[in-house]
Amino acid sequence: MFKRMTLLRRRTGDTAAAFQAHWSSVHSTFVLELPGIRRYVQNDVIRRPSRVLCDGIVELWFDDAAALQAAFDSEAGRALPLDEANFLGGKIVSDVSEHVLVAGHPGGGAAKLISVVRSAAATRAPAWDRWHEHLRRAQSGIEGLVRMSHHRVASQRHVGSEANGPHDIAGFIVYHFRDAATRAAFVQGACDAVERIAADRGAAHVRIPVIERIVKDGAIDPVSR
After folding, report:
1. How far apart are CA 183 and CA 111, in angstroms?
2. Is residue 134 classed as helix, strand or coil in its secondary structure?
3. Is there a contact between 160 and 88 (Cβ–Cβ < 8 Å)?
4. CB–CB of 45/212 below 8 Å?
């Protein structure tokens, strides 16, 4: 599967509640008009981290990169920015390839964590491959893990308030845990050992607990190695 993962920042002066209300009840209807969209998830940020200033993270699944491009080139795709002006101050758009490491279905009660990894080195293919292999081995020891996927950034675009930010997001790691307690224990304990590799000790990992809202529930892929 090919995905678009976007970090969203609300407009200056808007409350988090106003942002979430428009995003969930109004903007979602426009996104669902995109041709070829397979799955659509909105993630409300529980605590807005200082190093990645975002209020929400959106995940959109398509069959492949060509299908994603066709969707955003369509009439519905060209109309999206008109509504974005009603609730967004800026965004960081990342088109990513998804690699599923643990394919369990998270269900409605799972606690979700999105790790945003900023690194120049990990964007290079050999380093990314070593990182992916490290994660593939490490996942077996994570307590309470239900689902895990690793995402390599293929392209990135900064818009609005985020226009001058560094283009250094190398990837995302998305986890679903059995409950909030196992998610918290992972972040406070084994998270660094799981996510960091010797080849790139300088990478910055920003772990963002989120509340998942599934807008379109498409099929979940099997494990991809």
Report:
1. 7
2. helix
3. yes
4. no
Q: List the chain domain ranges.
A: 2-213
What are the φ/ψ torsions at residue 175 (nearest 5 degrees)? -120, 145
Q: What is the largest CA-CA distance in the chain?
A: 47
Q: Tokens 């918290």 correspond to what residue? A: 184
Q: Which residue has the tokens 């250094």?
A: 168
9-24 pLDDT, tens digit per residue, is 999 999 999 999 999 9
Two structure tokens written together for 49 = 């981290």
Pair 36, 132: CB distance under 8 Å: no
Alpha helices in 40-111 (DSSP H): 65-73, 75-84
Inter-residue contact 153 to 170 (CB < 8 Å): yes
Task: Kindly give the interhelix angle for 65-73 and 75-84, rounded to the nearest 10 degrees.
Answer: 70
CA dihedral 84, 87, 88, 89 (to 10 degrees): 130
CATH number of the 2-213 domain: 3.30.70.100
Close Cβ partners of 181 (under 8 Å, ≥ 6 residues apart): 144
Match 């407009």 to its residue by tokens: 11
Residue 164: which region, alpha, beta or left (left: phi > 0; alpha: psi -120 to 50)? alpha
Integer Cα distance of 223 and 145 in angstroms: 14
Report the candidate in 59, 72, 60, 63 with the shortest Cα–Cα distance to residue 1: 63
| Residue range 61-91, pLDDT digits in tens | 999 999 999 999 999 999 999 999 999 999 9
